[in-house]
Amino acid sequence: MSYNPIIMLILFFVFLAIFLILFRPVKGYYWILKNSLKQNKKIVIEDILKQLYHCEISDKEVGIEFLSGVLKSKDTNILEAVKEMEAKDLISTQGNSIKLNTSGREYALKIIRVHRLWEKYLAEKTGYDKKEWHDRAELMEHKLDEKATNILASELGNPMFDPHGDPIPTQTGEIVELGGVTLSSLKRYDIGKIIHIEDEPDVIYRQILAENIHIGSYIRVIENNSKRVVFYAEGEEFILAPIVAANVTVLTIDNEEEIDKDLVRLSSLKENETGEIISISKESRGEARRRLLDLGFVKGSKVSLDLTGPMNNPRGYHIKGTTIALRNEQAIHILIKKSSQNGKV
Amino acid sequence: MSKKVENIVEFANELRWQIGDELHDHLTESIYADAAKIASASVSTENSKKSFRLDAKIDKIVTSKIWGFPIMFLVLALVLWITIIGANYPSSMLATLLLDNVHPILKSFAASIGMPWWLDGFLIDGVYLALAWVIAVMLPPMAIFFPLFTMLEDFGYLPRVAFNMDYLFKKTGAHGKQALTMSMGFGCNAAGVVATRIIDSPRERLIAIITNNFSLCNGRWPTQILIATIFIGAVVPSSLSGFASVSAVISIAILGIGFMFLSSWLLTKTVLKGEVSTFNLELPPYRPPRIWKTIYTSLIDRTLIVLWRAMVFAVPAGAIIWLISNIYIGDESIAAWIINSLDGFGLILGLNGVILLAYIVAIPANEIVIPTILMLTVMVTGISGGEGAGVMFELDSVNETATILRAGGWTLLTAVNVMLFSLLHNPCSTTIYTIYKETKSVKWTVIASLLPLIMGFVVTFLVAQIWRVF
C-alpha cells in the first residue's frame, strides 16, 4: 500500500473514534455492555424490592407500570421477576397493586443497608465526588454478601446514618425513624436543622450541591411561597425552588435559644477580622476532616485571614501562630463566630 | 464463656453509638487544649512582632494580584538561565578532560598492554564513554540548579509559589505544590519525583509523579537548543535566527507544561478517580537561607544520588550501544538491522529509524541521545566523520553536526518532531526506577512510563501527517 498522509490521518481518527465510543468513561459501550451482562434476574428482583420499600414508606400504590417506568427495564422482565417473587413469598399482589411481605421487607432492608453503608464508605475512605456516591452504591448493593457487609460496617464503626442523613438499617434489620419535615413545608420564621438531603433524582441533587447546603446546619426560613423558599443558614442566604426544597428534610426546633445565630462560615471572614472556631461541618469527612483537626482547626482556636493570594483561592489563615492555606471549598465547612469587626491580629 | 464475650461486644457497640462519630474531634481538641496549657506554662516568647510584620509585608508583595505571577516567572527564568549558561563552562571542561584527554590515554594504555580490540572497544568506547558523557553533561547543571532551588525553598519562597498556583492546579485535580515539583523537574525528573514527597495527599502526589516527565529536564535542554539552532534558526533571516531558536525551545517547554495540565486532568478523570484527596499548605515564616548547609545537603542528597543512579544505568547502556554497533548478523550490524526495521514506523512519525533506536538505547540518560544519533547516522550513511562504530561523539561545530544530520535525511519536519519527541517520550531509566521506589507500584510506574510515550507517538504522527498534507 502506498503511503498517503490523508489516509493515515483518516485511519487515525477512525480508530480514535472507535476507541472513544467503546471506552469513554461510564458512557462507553464497553462499560455499558459489561454492566448489562450483569443485569440478571437477581438485580431486577432486588431493585423492585427497594422500590416497593420506598413506596411503602411514603404510602404509594405500586403497580407493574410504575415499576417498569422507574426501573427502566422491559415489562416482560419485570413480570417474570414479580412472578418469581410471589412464589418465594417476598411479595403479594392484589389486582394491580403489589405489597411487600415480611420476608420481602427484610430483604429490602438488607439491600438498603449495603447501599447506605457503601455510600458512607465512599464518603469516608475514598475521594469520589458526592455526585458519584449514589450510582456506585447502586452497583455495589447487589454484590456484597451479608458477611462482607458486616465487616464493612464494623470497619466504619457501625455508623447510624449515611452521608445524606438517611438512617442505616442495623444487622438485625432495625431502622431508625428519620423524622423531620420537608424544607418546603416550613413557614416563615420557622427554625430548624437540616438532617437529610435526598440524592435522587440526580438533577435536583446537583442543584442542592451547587448551592453548598450542608447537613447539620441550622436554618431560619425568611420566605416561603409557590415561587421560592428563602432561608438563612450559617450567615448566608439561600434561595431554592420549592421542588428542590422538597428534597431537603429539616428537624424543626421550637426553642430559639438552642441555635447559634452568630455562626458563620470561615469563608466569609474578611481581612482584619478575627473569629473563633466553633465546629467543623459534618460535610467535611474522612481524611480531609482529620487533616483540618490536626492542623489546629479545633473548637476554640482563634483564626484570622492572613493572605488572599492572586486568585482569592486558596486563602491563608493565621491560626495557632502559623499561616495555613485552605481552599474556599474547605473553608465553607468550618464554622466560626466573628469576635470583633476590627480586632487585632 | 462465649456468652460473656458476646455481651462485651454488644456493650462495646452500644458505647460506640453513644460516643458518636465525633470522637476524633474531641480527642484532637483535648490534645490541643493540653498542649496550649503546657506551652503557656513553660515557654516564654520574645516579642517577635517586628519580624512578623516584615514577613507579612513580603507576603503581601509575592502573593499580590499584580506582582505574584511576574515575580514567580522571573525567579524561575533566572534560575534556569543561570543553570544553562553557568553549566556550559564546567561541562566543557569536564568534557575536555574526560572525553578528549582521558579517553585517548585509556585507549593508548589498552593498546600498550595488548588488550584485544573487542574488549578495548567494549570497556573504553562503550562503558567508559557513556559514563564520562553522563558525568560531564549531567553533573554541572545539577550542581548549580539544585542548590539554587534548595535556597529558595529554605528562604520560604517556594510555599508561596504553591499558594499562588494552587487555583490553576486545582482545576486539573492537582495540588499547588505540584508547581514546585514541576519546576524541580526542569532540573531533573528523578529529583522532581523525589520532591513529590512534599505533597501529602495520595492522589495529588501520584499525579505529580506521573506528570513530572513533562518538565523538560536538564538532559533535554541541550538537545532542544542544538536542534533549534540548526534547523529552526535556519528558516528565518539570520538576524532573527537566535531569537527564533530560543522561542522554539521555550515554546516546547511551555507545551510541556500544557501537556502536564492535560494529563493531570485526564488522570483525575480516569485512573485516579476515587483516590483520597486532601489539601493543606503551610506558609512558614521567611528566614535567611543557610547557604553552606544548603549547598552541602543539596549536593549530597540530590545531585550525587541522582548522578550515581544515572551512572549505574549508563554503564549497561554504553555497553549495549557498542555491542549492537559491532556485532554483525550476516553482513549488517545489529544496529543496522534494528534501524532498517524501525525506519518504516519512524518515517510515518516524521522521524527515522536512527532516532528511534537512539531513544531506545539512550533510555538511561537523555544526555547521550545526540551523541548516539550522530554515531548511528555516520555508521548507517557511511559518510566520513565520527570515531568509528559504537563510539559516541559530539562535534564542537554546529555546522558539522548539521551536515551529518542532513546527510542522515533530516528535514525541518524531522527537527520539529525530534524536539517534540524529546519532550514527549518515556522518562529515563533513573526516573522510572525512582518512580517505582516512590510509588512501590508496578502499575503506576508503567503508566508513568508509557503515557508520555504514547502521547509522543500521537503528537509526532499528527504533526507529520498534517505537515505532509500541506
Descriptive account of the structure:
The complex is a heterodimer of chains A (345) and B (470). With 345 residues, chain A is an alpha+beta fold. Among the domains of chain A are: 181-258, SH3 type barrels; 264-340, SH3 type barrels. Helix content of chain A is 40%, strand content 21%. Chain A is built from 12 helices and 14 strands. In chain A, the strands form 3 sheets. Chain A has a 6-stranded antiparallel β-sheet with strand order 3-8-4-5-6-7. Chain A has a 6-stranded antiparallel β-sheet with strand order 9-14-10-11-12-13. Chain A has a two-stranded antiparallel ribbon with strand order 1-2. The radius of gyration of chain A is 25 Å and the shape is globular. The N and C termini of chain A lie far apart (76 Å). In chain A, 31% of the residues are buried. The model of chain A has no long low-confidence stretch (mean pLDDT 85). A two-stranded antiparallel ribbon of chain B has the order 2-3. Chain B has helices at residues 2-19, 23-42, 49-62, 68-112, 117-155, 157-171, 178-187, 189-195, 202-211, 221-235, 241-269, 291-326, 334-348, 353-361, 369-381, 398-407, 412-423, 429-439, 442-469; strands spanning 281-283, 328-329, 332-333. In chain B, α9 (202-211) crosses α19 (442-469). Chain B is built from 19 helices and 3 strands. Chain B is an all-alpha fold and 470 residues long. The model of chain B has no long low-confidence stretch (mean pLDDT 87). In chain B, a hairpin with a 2-residue loop joins β2 (328-329) and β3.
